[in-house]
Amino acid sequence: MLRGKPQHMTSEKYKTLFDDLYPSLCLFANRYLKDLDTSKDVVQDVFIKTWERKVSHPNYNAIKSFLYTSVKNKSLDYLRSKYHKNTIITPDTDFYKIQTKEHFLSEMVIVDVYANLESAMKSLPNKCEQILRFSLNEYTNNEIAEELSITINTVKTQKRIAYKKLRNALSHLNSFFTFF
Amino acid sequence: MTIFDRIYKLSKKTSQALLKDKSLTELEDTDLFSEEAKIHIQQNLSHEEIRKNIEILNQIDKEKDWKKVSSNIKPNKKASKIQAYKIAASIILLVSLVYAISIQHSQKVLDSKVADTKIEIGINKATLTLNDGSDIFLEKGSSYKTKTVHSNGEQLIYANEHKAVSETSYNYLTVPRGGQFQIKLSDNTKVWLNSDSKLKYPVTFKEGEPRSVELVYGEAYFDVSSSKVNNKMPFKVISQMQDVEVLGTKFNIKAYADKNYVYTTLVEGVVTVTTGKTTEYLNPGMQSILNKEDKNIVTSPVDVSYYISWTKGLFSFKDKPLKDIMLVLSRWYDVEVSFENTALEKVKFNGVLNKNQTISDILNGIKNTKFINTYEIENKTITIK
Known about the structure:
The complex is a heterodimer. By secondary structure, chain A is mostly helical. Chain A has helices at 11-33, 36-53, 60-83, 92-98, 101-122, 126-136, 141-148, 152-171. A six-stranded mixed β-barrel of chain B has the order 2-7-10-11-9-8. Chain B has a four-stranded mixed sheet with strand order 1-23-24-21, covered by helices on one side. In chain B, strands 20-22 form a two-stranded antiparallel ribbon. The longest helix of chain B is centred in the N-terminal third of the chain and has 17 residues, at 3-19.
């Protein structure tokens, strides 16, 4: 767990936080902005501002929530300023809806699930992970076997191991977050 | 446990269920989300969506982007890209309607067809409906006087009385399209009513009970007399689907029957906006927007001057689509507006319009911005082309 105040956080620790949350925050911003490059700019900006402001957070979840909230606010600000141009815009009702708290929280759940699944996969041995990624890309067992020059039985066995390990990984999901 | 802790717990349980190929019971049973939101979440957790999004996660180069961040987290940094976007956006803001109108090019750009126009500038007028159902028409130049109320045709003033009344009698003031009116209630609260608006209020407020009026429809600006001089009785405005309660303050409510949203904008003091079980506190400079369909309330800071300028003889617009601007004008000039090209409805404008201008002056101003080609007026219908 993250203890103490971030002003005591070294830039190495800040890097660990960045590594852990940056990709999912970009994905999250992208769901508002529909543009990955702008999303990255928004998230980088939030990381810079958060470091500058030295806001104090009691634990990992608190700083994570703070970052998600900041990225959401920045993304909406960006959309609002974009709308200032005299251009044709999307209907107001959509923009109204994406500003609600419920929308924010449901997007957090969605992105957090993606991030959980991704980090669970990363925890697998290389071969398992590779096979699972093929499988997620809708490759059949046959195709995976061909691609990796292994037998179908190996594919099946590796998949079984992968799923078992994933289940274990997820039941200890919080352990991913204890390296602070 | 904070709401975020509950969110993380839910996403963890949901991730586990997905990997075990089990149904998402935790999500189905949670009270964190409405049914609509639950469906939205589930749709985004299909195999296809998960695959697509994990692919995006893998596209992101953490090391490369960390270099951009780390070079900026030492003292003395340059302005960020987002700030640059904001500056760019505000420069674009400078191109505004107010400029176009104040310049008023005398030469006409494209001939506008104006046939048989009877369109008049709005004036002070209203209909007062008494407790017995009789109507009295009030208009600039006419006057009306009884023991409890008098009017010079510009405003209606109730006598400041504190007598005990056994039965409350109500009056209605109805302002038609093309009109506006001011009223001073018996507790000295001042109310400005905009075009196409209706207010219901007691002739005398009952002692020892909350003061309560109803904005039946339309837009009104309230300058509420302090509860300190009214036996600490709060003042309440009932409008479509919401109640606003105050203790002496200035605020604007916009609640037209044909619109989906009710806007409450606070100028001074503190008010609470209540709908169903939800109560929001507004501080000065804040606006709440109630969605009449799902009863959701969103609050945000606004420049209040734009929302109350109508009480001062102006219409101010900031970043408003032409459709909304024309709707406001249609009430003041009592006209119908249609767009030949619906894309024009969404073009946004800034501007300050004097309510004493003719409709043609305003339309020419808009035309001079070159965002519309021309307009036509026939009878009481304006067509934007």
